[in-house]
Design a protein that fits this description.
This protein is mainly beta and 363 residues long. The chain contains three helices and 29 strands. The strands form eight sheets. Strands 1-20-19-18-17 form a five-stranded mixed sheet. The longest helix is centred in the first third of the chain and has 21 residues. It is globular.
Length: 363
């Protein structure tokens, strides 16, 4: 049985590789459940092909090699995992501090919110944060919940989430009206759409599992998602080169399929890769390292140390800008990869794994 599961994963990744290299859509394979799921999604909308190798790659360097600093030695970043920028402040989840760290735009750490624990307002490995004008939403990973706090960080309520073995992919995204969270996989779907206003009721759930529950490689069920203030959102399975774009009414309007060497490399054996880039336990390489959808409908994706700005409409997308983000030279031997990013006022704020800092790149 285990060999059959491994063969399923290898076959599905090989199928993805062939699709990417030919630029053609392969018909459904009736004997492979996972392929039927993806093929069904691909049939719902127009397909826009993007060859990543054809985009000019511009190298950029951080404004400062050491940004996060404080006059208080109790304020430091241990293991930053995600960030959001609101009202000219950067809010950072930190798994070592078990807290939310607050920084100014120029890198001054000014506040620590929360502590280790299981009570409301306490955290065990917070891994993701987002917010809107009224609320913050924090994925409290080891406590298996999304904590919802008001703009002053007063606890409001918690939403239970599925406790995965590893916190890969997205787990929370929001605008003023809509909250997207990772679903419990036993429901057969991967994301839940909720109201971002009290009582935060669930509206619907979307995106089926591509690998049945309990089978491998289960990491193919990890997803990344992002939403902008207009309500447009996009979703991608982290190990597959497809991005499914939806309008503000929830209609799947276009699918972006990525081509190029990095897509082809998804099928190559994993060796010596850890952290953000792969799940060796499930033999899956990741394509989407970070994902954002901007209010002007542009999409920002990160792969390893590259960032792509995508621009388009309901019929076609293309690459507007490709950047190679160079981390500080002193960390180059660590082979850092982008863990999360945020675009704000012409600047990219970036967390690299395993760098304990938030770096700023001016575009």
């Amino acid at each position: 049985m285990m060999n059959q599961r491994v063969k399923l994963g290898v076959f599905f990744l090989t199928l993805t590789f062939l699709t990417a290299c030919t630029g053609k859509r392969i018909g459904p394979i009736k004997t492979v459940f996972s392929n039927q799921v993806i093929d069904s999604l691909l049939k719902r909308s127009e397909l826009s092909l993007i060859d990543l190798d054809k985009a000019f790659r511009k190298e950029v360097f951080p404004l400062d090699n050491d940004r996060q600093r404080s006059n208080d030695n109790r304020l430091f970043l241990g293991d930053p995992t995600s960030l959001t920028v609101l009202r000219d402040s950067i809010y950072i989840t930190d798994r070592v501090n078990n807290a939310i760290m607050v920084s100014t735009l120029d890198g001054q750490l000014v506040r620590r919110i929360g502590r280790s624990g299981r009570a409301p307002g306490e955290y065990l490995e917070p891994v993701s944060i987002t917010g809107n004008d009224k609320y913050f939403f924090i994925h409290d990973f080891k406590n298996a919940r999304i904590q919802i706090l008001d703009s002053w960080f007063n606890y409001q309520i918690s939403h239970p989430v599925f406790l995965l073995p590893f916190p890969f992919g997205s787990s929370v995204a929001a605008n003023d009206q809509t909250l997207i969270v990772r679903s419990h996989q036993r429901t057969g779907t991967l994301i839940s759409i909720l109201s971002a206003q009290p009582p935060f009721q669930e509206i619907r759930s979307e995106f089926p599992l591509v690998i049945p529950l309990g089978e491998q490689p289960s990491a193919l069920n990890f997803v990344r998602f992002a939403i902008n203030q207009q309500g447009e959102y996009c979703v991608g399975y982290v190990g597959l080169p497809y991005l499914f774009v939806h309008d503000r009414d929830g209609h799947h309007v276009i699918t972006i399929q990525f081509l190029g060497k990095e897509v082809a490399s998804l099928t190559e054996p994993i060796s010596g890769i850890s952290g953000t880039g792969a799940s060796s336990r499930n033999s899956v390489k990741y394509f989407f390292y970070a994902l954002r959808m901007l209010d002007d409908s542009r999409i920002v994706i990160a792969h390893k140390t590259d960032v792509f700005f995508l621009k388009g409409d309901n019929k076609k997308y293309g690459i507007e800008l490709r950047l190679k983000l160079n981390p500080p030279e002193k960390f180059s031997d660590l082979k850092p990869a982008i863990r999360d990013l945020a675009y704000y006022q012409g600047m990219l704020f970036v967390i690299f794994d395993p760098i304990p800092d938030v770096l700023c790149y001016k575009l």
